[in-house]
Amino acid sequence: MRRHGEMVLAGVFFVLGVLMFWFTRQFAYNGLESFGTGFWPRVIAAIMMVCSALLFVQSLLSKDPEKDEIVIDWKSEGMKRVYKVAVILVVFCVALYFIGLCLALLFMIFGIMWSMEERRIPFLVITPVGCSLFIYVVFQILLKVKLPAGILFQ
Amino acid sequence: MFDIAAFGIALSAVFTVENILLILFGTLFGILCGAMPGLSSVMAMTIMVPFTFSMSGYAGILCLLGIFCGSIYGGSITAILINTPGTSNSAATCLDGYPLSQKGEAGRALGISTMASTFGGVFSALALFVIAPILAKFALNFGAPEYFALAIFGISIVTSISSDNMVKGIISMMLGLAISTIGMDVLTAENRFTGGTTYLLGGLPYIVILIAMYAFSQGLINVLEYKKGGVLNRESAKLARVIPTMEDIKRTAPVILISSVIGTVVGAIPGTGGDIACWTAYSQMKRLRKKDEVEFGKGNVKGVAAPEAANNAISGGALIPLLTLGIPGDAGSAIMLGSLMMLGITPGPLLFSNETDKVYLIILGLMVANICMCLLGYCGMRGFAKISSMPLQLLTPMVFMFCAVGTFAYNHNVTDIFVMVAFGFLGFFMVRFKFPIPPIILGIILGDMIEKNLQRSLVLSKGSFGIFFTRPISCVLMVIAILSICSPIILAIVRSVKGSGAKAAVEDSGDRESE
Q1: Cα(B500)–Cα(A34) distance, rounded to whole angstroms?
Q2: Residue A126 pLDDT
Q3: In whole angstroms, what is the distance from residue B340 CA to residue B323 CA?
């Protein structure tokens, strides 16, 4: 039994370091006196790779992995709710482009309340409408911030 | 040193009806957020910071100061009433606040907490007024090597304090520094990691990442940990007397004074915060307890006064390195830095000589915010006590809503919302895997400063790193930074050597016994 989650994350950060190093190959390095744009990102990438490798080894050699392991139960009720909210937020981002912020907020607030098992109709209606109205009045009217209207309403 | 003309300008700027109302609003918002477990003071500030940019003049800064003070204080309300600290700053308040509440003295505990918080806040503002100009004058002698060493010192202290696992802390720091390299290089005008998009030319806005990492990820954690029917507090405590008696004032006055000093000093050290300040003050006061007093942990009023004075005193303390050196010590002061920069105020030693009125404005704003906090605390305590009964399924969507709207209001760019959502999920997983978030934020903020000053220093020294160790200030800062990063490794080696020594001794004695 190893600390798998941490090992995977260490791998992700290692790959990030490698990618960063790879993308800096075109950047200039003119020696330490005037090091150009390439030196600093390469230093960061190198330290990130070393630390990721250390984290991987640390997790691999953990004396008591069960005690220290950070467990995320991907199939738990809580994580299922997080997946639902993630989908709602992605749809919200797409909806922003088409129907604008205030209407997208209506959907987002309703969706998150529903995914958090709120089933009382008055709450499901009043909260999203009230919040969207609040944002519209405070930003669009009082603070004169032009909220995104969406391409359908522009 | 005291510039009376600048003080007059600051005084007239703060004491306008509009600004006083905005400080009151900020403080009220802060108290409400602080009182809700699941919303932190940093979260309250990150949500509100984009809104403050649309406010005129320096109203935004004053409003943020109100939120800063109010949210630290607000955490004590739920700590005392339901044994759940609204923010980590009030964790120590639970120990004596809740037992007092159980004894039917919730009003007394809340009254003392309000008094101590106000005194701590005002004391730290006065300390800022006295100490900051002296430090700023000293910092005028700093050159590129000192600034590089200072930035490295700040970020390494934050990294070493905020994580149990140093490797994770350094990875977080590197992630922040990596993000800071995105965009056009200011020295060479060359684009880095922009992928050809104009959106990334100016780099990723750190306020957006701050909202994502603190507020959005916390919203996701609320979703993950939500239990159906989960209401934070179903009891509405009956508060009797909330104004402290003369006897309580006399008993707690020395404790409040000492704790305020502790809080201010702790706050001025980068990487620390209200949680460290409150525990330090609590443990010190516990040691100084008189024999005839109620034991700490069983409802001693000093156990409420000490942490509350200390955690509110960090507000002024944290502004000392920010205003004098331009180094934010924690996430809260990082937000203040962003707001100041947006208003064209660049924190640093020159601020004290060139724009003294703005320094006084911040100090006066902090004092007024603490007084507003006191007034709101005593007048609205009964109302704030009910805020914790808000259902999470109503609170959580509002957090996401404020994240989205706040992010948009910052730059008026929809792409920022997508970036915020993406970084929010990254933040959620990083928090779950116990990667510290403060080094990421400080990495983003200080990355540019580190790179620029490293380059300038190496130009001065003709490519020699020795320049950081031949100048006294930079040498001291670099040594502390290296020690703070290396100390966990050294300690681990010392412990393992001691452990193996003890094990060998045990085995040796076992062998002798068997013989």
Answers
A1: 49
A2: 95
A3: 10
Q: What length is written for chain A?
A: 154
Quote the minimal CA–CA distance from B262 to chain A in Å: 34
- Contact between residue B62 and residue B369 where contact means Cβ atoms under 8 Å apart: yes
Helix (H, G, I), strand (E, B) or coil at A149: coil
Count of H-run helices and E-run strands, chain B: 21, 2
Report chain A residues whose CB lies below 8 A from the CB of B425.
86
Q: Which two tokens stand for residue B218?
A: 């916390």
B427-451 confidence digits (pLDDT tens): 999 988 889 888 898 888 888 889 9
Whether residue B419 lies within 8 A of chain A, CB to CB, comes out as no
Q: Give a three-class secondary structure readout of B437-498.
A: CHHHHHHHHHHHHHHHHHHHHHHHCCCCCCHHHHCHHHHHHHHHHHHHHHHHHHHHHHHHHH
List pLDDT tens digits, range B38-57: 677 777 888 787 778 777 77
Q: Residue B407: CB partners within 8 Å, gap ≥ 6? A: B50, B208, B211, B212, B416, B417, B420
User: How far is B196 from B131, CA to CA, in rounded Å?
Assistant: 47
A26, A145, A151, A154: best mutation site toward chain B, by most B Cβ within 10 Å?
A145
**pTM of structure:** 0.80
Q: How far apart are CA B60 and CA B367, in angstroms?
A: 16
Q: Of the candidates B296, B302, B312, B306, which has an alpha carbon nearest to the alpha carbon of residue B248?
A: B302
Its ipTM equals 0.91
Per-residue pLDDT tens digits for A104-153: 999 999 999 999 988 899 999 999 999 999 989 887 887 777 888 888 87
Interface check for B425 against chain A (CB to CB < 8 A): the answer is yes
Mark A115-129 as b/e (b = at least 16 C-beta within 10 Å). Answer: bbebeeeeebeebbe
What value, to the nearest 5°, has the Cα angle with vertex B188 and ends B182 and B189?
A: 60
Residue B486 reports pLDDT greater than 60: yes
Say if strands B191-192 and B183-184 run parallel, antiparallel, or are unpaired: antiparallel
Rounded to 10 deg, the angle between the B274-287 and B302-325 helix axes is: 140
* A73-78 LR contacts (CB < 8 Å, sep 24+): A78/B223, A78/B224, A78/B225, A78/B226
Residue A92 has pLDDT above 70, yes or no: yes
Return the percentage of chain B with pLDDT > 90, whole number.
27
Nearest chain B Cα distance for residue A116, angstroms: 6
